Amino acid sequence: MNEFTLTMAIRKRNEKGQSAFIPYMMAGDGGLDMLHERISFLEEAGADAIEIGIPFSDPVADGEVIQEAGSRALKRGVTLRKVMSELQAQLHSIPLVVMTYLNPVLAYGVSEFVEDCKRAGVKGLIIPDLPHEERGLLSDALIGKDIALVPLISLTSSLERIEKNARKAEGFVYAVTVNGITGVRSSFASDLMDHLTVLKGVSNVPVLAGFGISTPEQVRHFSSIADGVIVGSAIVTAFHEENLEKIQSLIEASRTAVSQ
Amino acid sequence: MIQTVEGKGRYGRFGGQYVPETLMGALSELEEAHDSALADQEFIEQLNGYLKDFVGRENPLYFAERLTEAAGGARIYLKREDLNHTGAHKINNALGQALLAKRMGKRKIVAETGAGQHGVATATACALLGLECVVFMGKEDIRRQELNVFRMELLGTRVESVDKGAGTLKDAVNEALRYWVAHVEDTHYILGSALGPHPFPKIVRDFQQVIGQETKRQIVEKEGRLPDAVVACIGGGSNAIGMFHPFVEDENVALYGVEAAGGGISTGQHAAAIAEAKEGVLHGAYMYVLQDEDGFIQEAHSISAGLDYPAVGPEHCHLHDIGRVHYTSVTDAEALEGVQLLAQKEGIIPALESAHAIHFAFGLAKEMHPDEILVVCLSGRGDKDVQTVRDALGGGVQ
Question: Please, what is the average pLDDT of chain B?
């Protein structure tokens, strides 16, 4: 099988000796009519793919910042269905990765959701409450669609699980860099480097680090050891505060990192 | 409709493990620890010792003579879980899981609570075993169950208020899960109901089935046979699964689960997930879940904080599907009648949760023959609800 478009986009960046940068934005925060404008901004600012978060009533994997952004979007009546319809209205060349909890997908209908993802140019899915064992729920519907079901692999995963998950990973491996939920962190576990090294050793796809990465220094640090970084809460905050320079500085930090 | 997928902990198509990857290791560690504990005679003896001398088991199966007379039908027995230490069935599971945590070398405990009964039970078990405990509780529930908050604090537990969502049980579970994800390496999550990802529904059932086992033994001693009907209330479904499980194979025993209909099913202000019959994933399991057409989870509504949860444990969902248990519902107003009925006929003030079962059972008994036997699980005592009941009755008894 050919590589996923999402994987190729990351590799393209890595081939330049640089680390990939994937920002996360909450769809509908600030209004759904901002969606395309923000995607275009992130694309022009140099993102390699964009993670589009879908608001949910019970976001158990998210910290305060993303929970609040989700609540703002929910108050505006944003739903998975509305986001998918908006995405289909205007296509982008940058790969989009939809991050949603499982229940809205089940309510949508798995096959209908996958078809709409295909039409909207979605190249990857991240479903934080769908671990490896349960992925059969979606994986059949995704065959041949060039939509990668990106696995999260955590610090607490056993070596056996890491190998099992990483070998079958599609798109990229989302290496969760903290035990916990999304959000800003000031420190990371000391064995994180070993964890990332192990992951890179067993994975056939790029390994990106995410959760808790929020400052240019952290971006630079993780960019030097992983194939890319995912930044969520800091991007969400920057959009909310209309501080677009902050976003540019984060992306620049990833470009100036020297790989180790 | 969900496709059947290979996964652990399935009850028909319900159950599973829909949780963040960070928790998967802890779940498999928990499953192994639980299996090995149940196979270890020493662990069983230790648990049974605490159940006997600390909890006060076995508790009575009480013949409710005046309630039976008032109904004029089946002979009504009450399984007195309200007489357990801490006043409800919740201690059975809290103690079992606290012992399990200790066995796994985890000295810290996180739990959620709705009515506060599970929180108090967990705080109690932690004090008994010297474990550190934090309990998440919705802001609205803290208001409704103020005294239980203080009880937990007296027992040395830290109570964290959750003001997200409606500030009820669902929101408390969300926060407890977030906390657990962040502290999973040294902390065990004592889930209080027959919910959540595998192996929690099984663990809770295993520690609660003492209710049904004792009932079975006691009714045979008193009546020489099994009952014709067994009734229990259902929020997540822990007392009900504990009561029902030992009877599931006994086909002549009719089983009835009573959900909370709140203001009435037709008002949309209720907690009756089976009645609503929408399937989905919440808190790690595939279940019947109250939700809107976009898959957003809806708030449950019930006068009883312990039943105020928008889903029903996966095994109950399956027992409903195969028709083994009849699920029905009782409104807030009917539950209030149930409280007064039991108080005045038997001198027992039931918890609002249990009052749902009492109200339904009373109606059912009327339609049964005087030779027939009906058992109700009286899951908890009503001391915690006296204020709520007084307010709901407008300050006076009707």
Answer: 95
In a domain, A107, yes or no: yes
Cα distance between residue B136 and residue B157, in whole Å: 10
Amino acid symbol at A200: K
Q: What is the ipTM of this complex?
A: 0.93
What pLDDT does residue B144 have?
80
pLDDT at B4 over 60: no
CA B323/CA B12 separation, integer angstroms: 12
Angstrom distance (rounded) from CA B237 to CA B258: 10
CB distance from B283 to chain A under 8 Å? yes
Q: Place A22 in a pLDDT band, splitting at 50, 70 and 90.
A: very high
pLDDT at A259 over 70: no
Task: Report the amino acid identity of residue A152.
Answer: L
Taking 60 as the threshold, does the pLDDT of residue B1 lie above it? Answer: no
Tell me whether residue A81 is in a domain: yes
CA–CA separation, B116 and B221 (whole Å): 34
Inter-chain CB proximity B2 and A67 less than 8 Å: no
Residue A89: which domain range? 5-255
What does pTM read for this prediction?
0.94
Task: Decide if B295 contacts A106 (C-beta within 8 A).
Answer: yes
For residue A260, tell me if it sits in a domain.
Answer: no
Residue of chain B whose alpha carbon sits nearest to that of A107 = B295
Q: Is B321 buried (19+), middle (13-18) or exposed (0-12) by CB count in 10 A?
A: middle
Identify the CATH number of the domain in which residue A195 sits: 3.20.20.70
Residues in B touching A157 (Cβ below 8 Å): 21-22, 24-25
- Test A180 with B174 for CB contact under 8 angstroms: no
